[in-house]
Specification:
With 113 residues, this protein is mainly α. Helices cover 85% and strands 0% of the residues. It has 3 helices and no strands. Helix 1 runs antiparallel to helix 2 and helix 2 crosses helix 3. The longest helix is centred in the C-terminal third of the chain and has 52 residues. It is globular and about 50 Å long. 10% of the residues are buried.
Length: 113
């Protein structure tokens, strides 16, 4: 199933996000942590087709995945606007905290399936 790989991705992302502001003094560490975060993002793209097929059936998965994939584009634009709105009030540290909580929330939702 997809539960274990997705759990690993969510936990890795939740562990890496808070490290990002703490490793800014080292280009190598900052790059490694950032690559790890991008790895988690790519891992989500890889796992989602399997999640769709398992939850909605192979017959319905392509249509549902296309809607989900469109959601990524909408979220990217919306996320940029939310980031701009929140940056002044909570700063980058606060935004990273929010993203960490979102990763952990995804893990909680996974356990409800």
């Amino acid at each position: 199933g997809f539960e274990k790989p997705y759990s690993v991705i969510a936990l890795l992302e939740a562990a890496l996000l808070p490290l990002l502001p703490r490793v800014t003094d080292s280009k190598a560490l900052f790059g490694a942590v950032l690559c790890g975060i991008f790895f988690c993002l790519g891992g989500n793209f890889v796992v989602f087709p399997t999640v769709n097929a398992k939850l909605f059936g192979v017959r319905n998965a392509p249509e549902i995945y296309s809607v989900l994939f469109t959601g990524f584009a909408v979220a990217a634009i919306g996320g940029a606007e939310v980031t701009k709105a929140l940056l002044g009030s909570i700063g980058w540290g606060g935004l990273i905290h929010v993203m960490t909580v979102c990763a952990l929330f995804g893990l909680v939702l996974l356990n409800l399936l």
